[in-house]
Amino acid sequence: MQKPTDLVEYETMLLGRHRPMLSSGPESEIGGLERAAYIVLSRVRIEGPMTIRRLSEAFGLDQSTLNRQTSALVKAGLLERIPDPDGGIARKFRLTTEGAHRLDECRDEIVQGLDKVMADWSAEDVAAFATFLKRFNTDIERLSGRPWPRP
């Protein structure tokens, strides 16, 4: 007999499979940005300028991994290194105008894909689904000790 969590596991596996439908780019991309870039840029946008150390803590990844990712984003003109506005020694990363523009474009493309998928859903069903997704994510964040800031 299947438990409800068996069904959740299966459906979340399928959700990852459907990601390409929500954007026009290759499977490794979300709306034209690499998945990791999309997530890093989203985090910097919502939290503001961040150091490598803070990014590493936020994602639970090694600083060398974040160094490679942020270096690629700087080279692409999507992030820039700035002095710490609070006077600290470490330099921080912030979104460039181009980075914000590309992030907006990607997010718009994803939302358009979601609009197509949920075209026949009522506004109440979409809101309920969003509420359950938020609850699911915040419970994972609570257990991992790495909350994600929300607007």
TrEMBL record:
InterPro entries reported for this sequence: ArsR-like_HTH, HTH_MarR-typ, MarR/SlyA-like, WH-like_DNA-bd_sf, WH_DNA-bd_sf
GO BP: response to stress
An annotated Gene Ontology molecular function: DNA-binding transcription factor activity
Record-linked Pfam families: MarR_2
CDD domains per record: HTH_ARSR
SUPFAM superfamilies according to UniProt: Winged helix' DNA-binding domain (SSF46785)
PROSITE patterns, A to Z: HTH_MARR_2
Protein name as annotated: MarR family transcriptional regulator
Lineage of the organism: Bacteria, Bacillati, Actinomycetota, Actinomycetes, Streptosporangiales
